[in-house]
Amino acid sequence: MRPVYMISGGITKFVKAQPHKDFRLMVREAYDYALADLPGLTPETIDGSVCSYFSDHFTRQVMAGAMVQDYLGLNPKPSRRVEGGGATGGICFQSAWEAVASGRHEVCLAMGFETMSRVNTWKGNEFIALASDTNFDYPLGGFYTGYYAMMVRRHMHEFGTTVEQMAKVAVKNHGNALHNPFAQSPAMLTVDEVRSAPMVATPLTVLDCCTMSDGAAVAILASEEAASALGGTPVRITGIGSGSDAMRLADRPHSEVLILPHENPEDYEGLRFPGVHSFRGGRMAARSAYRMAGITDPGTDLDFVELHDAFTSSEIQTCEDLGLCRYGEGGSYIDSGASFLPNLNYGLKFSGSEQWRPVPVNPSGGLLACGHPIGATGLMQAVFAFWQLQGSLAKHLGNSMLQLPEPRRGLIHSHAGTGTTITVTIMERV
Amino acid sequence: MRPVYMISGGITKFVKAQPHKDFRLMVREAYDYALADLPGLTPETIDGSVCSYFSDHFTRQVMAGAMVQDYLGLNPKPSRRVEGGGATGGICFQSAWEAVASGRHEVCLAMGFETMSRVNTWKGNEFIALASDTNFDYPLGGFYTGYYAMMVRRHMHEFGTTVEQMAKVAVKNHGNALHNPFAQSPAMLTVDEVRSAPMVATPLTVLDCCTMSDGAAVAILASEEAASALGGTPVRITGIGSGSDAMRLADRPHSEVLILPHENPEDYEGLRFPGVHSFRGGRMAARSAYRMAGITDPGTDLDFVELHDAFTSSEIQTCEDLGLCRYGEGGSYIDSGASFLPNLNYGLKFSGSEQWRPVPVNPSGGLLACGHPIGATGLMQAVFAFWQLQGSLAKHLGNSMLQLPEPRRGLIHSHAGTGTTITVTIMERV
Amino acid sequence: MDPRAKLPESEEGTVLFNTDPIVIKDHYEIDYRHSYAQDSPFFAGLARGKLMGSHCQGCGRRYATPRGHCMECGSATTWCELPHEGRVHTYTTCYYGSESFLKETPYTLILVEFTGVDTLFLSRLVGAAPEEVSIGLKVRARFLRNCKFKVTDVYFVSA
Amino acid sequence: MDPRAKLPESEEGTVLFNTDPIVIKDHYEIDYRHSYAQDSPFFAGLARGKLMGSHCQGCGRRYATPRGHCMECGSATTWCELPHEGRVHTYTTCYYGSESFLKETPYTLILVEFTGVDTLFLSRLVGAAPEEVSIGLKVRARFLRNCKFKVTDVYFVSA
Ligand SMILES: [Zn+2]
Ligand SMILES: [Zn+2]
Fold this sequence. Notes:
The complex is a heterotetramer, with two copies of chain A and two copies of chain C.
Chain A: E1 4-11, H1 23-37, E2 48-52, H2 56-59, H3 64-71, E3 79-83, H4 88-101, E4 107-115, H5 121-129, H6 144-159, H7 163-177, H8 191-196, E5 199-201, E6 204-205, E7 214-223, H9 224-230, E8 235-244, E9 254-255, E10 273-274, H10 280-293, H11 298-301, E11 304-306, H12 312-321, H13 330-336, H14 366-370, H15 374-390, H16 393-397, E12 409-415, E13 421-429
Parallel strand pairs in A: 2-3, 2-4, 11-12
Antiparallel strand pairs in A: 1-7, 1-8, 4-7, 5-6, 8-13, 9-10, 12-13
Helix pairs in contact in A: 1-3, 4-15, 7-12, 7-13, 12-13
Chain C: E1 16-19, E2 22-35, H1 40-47, E3 52-56, E4 62-63, E5 77-81, E6 85-94, E7 107-113, E8 121-125, E9 138-143, E10 154-158
Antiparallel strand pairs in C: 1-2, 3-4, 3-5, 6-7, 6-9, 7-8, 9-10
The structure holds zinc ion (ZN) (2 copies).
One zinc ion binds at residues 56, 58-59, 61, 70, 72-73, 75 of chain D.
Protein name (chains C, D): Nucleotide-binding protein
Domain ChsH2 C-terminal OB-fold (chains C, D): 79-143
Domain ChsH2 rubredoxin-like zinc ribbon (chains C, D): 43-76
């Protein structure tokens, strides 16, 4: 396979509502950021683009991607839109990878956005719920938080996961975001505050859930030849994987666990998979990406993870899917502190277990604290991973609190509605 | 670049309304057709899919692609949706090409559908018009036929194109479809009938326009290794290209013509391009695809073309964009009969000009006569081109009237709203 | 041609929420003629007080929600009647929901397991306080008499 | 828990268009708080009887419809006022349209050229029969007095 690199990236600050800018201008700002960050990069060097946004409903505009393309002055170059629910940004990044890896483009722009403030929050939830089966699921209440709540309730039943463990994910991610000026809702929280926040769908409180946002992000990918010609500090994309599952939770199989290289089928005797407790598509995506990147033990081989924490519960479930810990251990994993940044004080006591190597999860603050402008989110993760691997976080964030010392390899993970589509991408310092 | 082949395809009959089947079942039927046509091909051999449909509005379902994926039993394999307006099917085919060419998949399923009958025709037109600028264009009448009508009016002004020449396109394509049992509206028409049909937007009558449809199509692409392992009669994809233009007609430049290898800039002195008379994105797409396929003179190097004739006028404009004739010659080109099937009688007299080599355009009947279930259309073209190049049309259509003798190389062309996104793909007999 | 032509003035104005930037109230609506297509017998079943599932003719799997083809082996399915009694596989009580459903909050969602059926059934549980619900709770289907041809024509109560 | 709990019956039913398959009438609607964002001054201009275009500060191109950044050189643009007189670049009369606009048919659309402006302006032509319109026809802008903050607040008549 032809090697592919990320060579630049840009994001806007994610905010609750940005009425002064339409989606075209928001992408323009992220794009200008990326161009400014790599002086050799000009619009002429870009061969084409892939555009990512979730829904025609939020944009009130079909083919919004064509309008971004013309606003950036990229006509008559190739462009297309990709969509995969909440995983749209991850799909976009991987499509741009394919465009370069296939030899079609030397330099490809991945660009994404969402403007979710153009309707009220509950209408926005309705739009999102239209991405569940409109005959059999949506009419029951039309509410994704409810679906995730049922999933984690079963996770609690199978594995003993607690709401306090979930709350710690919120404490961690909002705490990390205190040092990320692009984040929408940085905060120093306590487990009590998370649990005493308004209940949305038992057991998930409003602080267990990410918020809707306006925002944009871009990532620029290039072939090895183009990357060396354009200079800067490229980061190599060494693994991509993607997986899917039935649209409806109710239809998913209760079968055998897909095994990662460092696991044994005996670890999971009696466990029915994925049921409604786990994300089979996430496991599948991880397995493919690890194979391509040559990762045999993710807990050892990865230095950080930016994963799709639309809910605190999904971070716990996803750490298991990715093999950072075994299925059923996600609660103890967060208790151990292994996924926290070692240099920050979260006001929490960790269990002291040293079963797992420390691998910071969502050092950026994740979706919980950065916000979740759907089409931009997966690309925002790519930009943070890129800066993290470049060692350039201090330059972009104005502080180095989230910068890991010498990170070698990171993982980004993008996820759609209850796991219907999930992408995993591995990025490595060159 | 790693060679990529199309190894099988399937379509449903395109019809005005198919209320007995939802989009999942329609795709299933096309998929079963493709599986049955290549015995070595089983679901296990498929590595992933790309799904193509135009609009969440028509489906009344967001993430409909995830529901097709699970209905086909393809979980937990990778899947994603691509969208590019009317060019969605062409984008899907090229995305599947990228998935294979990049080395990510050995066998990739491209699947597309649209169910347009779930709203009335004028609401359907409104959904389509939401793919024009909703601030500056849609409020004027929300009507794509009007936009195309303005384009051809300018084409007539610049080049002397006549409404009778446009009508001949309808006569040709509906006549070809008489021999295509998958087509929605085969008919023996006359120029007078086309002109005396109800006026939609001057100068376009209802017979100058394609209709809305329910339908599905799939194309299966594979690497060389997989193609030879699976047997059958693969067809090689030798060129892909894509282009874009400003969303709004009003915003397009009036500049210089993009030149194809067999043309000279002097051919077009004084012509401002694309203005609103031509599709710059189509010219860009053709130029890239020709370069990849090594085509230097499309009129000589191509044996047939399946192009996006959503309107009779766009076929004339597109023959120019593709370089089958020069800009301004599209009307004389149809008059010459070069784009008609030589073995059929259309009840027309041709001009007798032998300026152009005969290259049948839309032997399938095109969108005008096959129908236009948006997400399926570009894949339907691929299936017809595949069968044409295999020499298997008699088997699939039950007659050999549309089968060319020994076609060596064909072109398929997919197109979105007034040319915002256009794809061109070259397919060759092995 | 009339160079003095004027469009009539109308007093249907536009609601503005802001002037800098200009934010307008913009309404859109759609009427679908939505077909349940191959799943229609399920909805017809609700009107007769029956829960209709799918039975795979290839591998024998039973689906608690209709599915014309089996997800596992790809075979066509036939219709089968489901039991009216099952157990709660998981649950939640929603205090918020989509705009259309806000007026119905709080409501409790359950995934129902049926003996001998391989997948679950999503429905609402009625008549139980949030803290009374638990995994394993036995539940029984009830049907609306005035059928609306929606999946909500059936709901569950504790058995 | 109440095993005899019953949802109240309601007489709001569902319109069926067919029973085999079951085809229901299904309504959906949305209220947007739509922002014109950086293009707001154009709509404010309409209320003052002005046509506001964009002028590129990099390459000097003028756009007849606002655009915050130049499509050719990428520079930011400033606002400029457009002339009220122009010529028809192309036209059509629509006898059908989207559902929302069917009641307005037939209507004539024109793309207007302005001297010294590099792009066109889409609008409606009023007061001309379909056969009276031609390319090159001189036209003049008119504005609604009761502004609706829509692009249709301006229209054209023959000059
Ligand atoms: Zn089966
Ligand atoms: Zn400029």
